Amino acid sequence: MTHHNPLHLIEETPFTADHCLKCNICTSACPVAPLTPLFPGPKTVGPQAQRLREPGEPSPDHSIDYCSGCGICTLVCPHGVKVMEINTQAKARMTETHGMSPRNWFLSRNELWGRLGTPFAPLANFAVRNRLLRLIVEKVFKVSARGPLPGWAGYTFRGWWKKQAKRFPRPEPESDANRVVYFHGCSTNTYEPHIGKLAVAVLEHIGLHVEIPPQTCCGLPAQSNGDFKAARRYARTNIDSLVEYARRGIPIVGTSASCMTAIKGDYQHVLGLEDEDARLVAENTYDFMEFLDKLHREGRLPADFQPIERELPYHAPCQLKAHGMGRPALDVLDLIPGLHAWEIDADCCGIAGTYGYKAEKRDIAEAVGWPIAQQVYDAGADTVICDTETCRWQITSLTGAKTIHPVELVAQAYGLSVDGYRPPVVAAAPPKDKETVPGW
Amino acid sequence: MNTSHSVDVLVVGGGATGAAAAYDLARRGMRPLLVEQLDLSTGTSGRYHGLLHSGGRYAVRDLETAAECIVENQVLRRIAPFAIEDTGGLFIATPDDPADFPERWLAGCRTAGIPTESITAAQARTQEPALTPRITAAYRVPDGSCDSFDLIHAFVEATRALGGDALIYHRVRDLIREGDAVVGAHLEDTRTGERRTVSAACVLNAAGPWAGVVAGLAGLDVGIKFDRGAMIAMNTRWVNTIVNRLRPADDGDILVPVGTVCVLGTTSVHTDHPDDYRIEAWEVSKILSEADVVVPGIRHGRALRAWAGVRPLYEPPEAGHDDAEGREVKRTFSVIDHAQRDGVRGLVTVVGGKLTTCRLMAEQAVDVVAAQLGNEARCTTAGDPLPGPHAPRYHQLGGRLHKLEHGELPGELICECEMVTRAQLEAAIDAYGDQPVALDDLRRDLRLGMGPCQAGFCSYRAAGILQQKKGHTGPDTVEAFGAFVDERFRGVRPLLWGHQLRQMYLDELIYRRTLGLDQLAEQPTEEPAHA
Question: How many beta-carbon pairs below 8 A join chains A and B?
Answer without folding.
Answer: 92
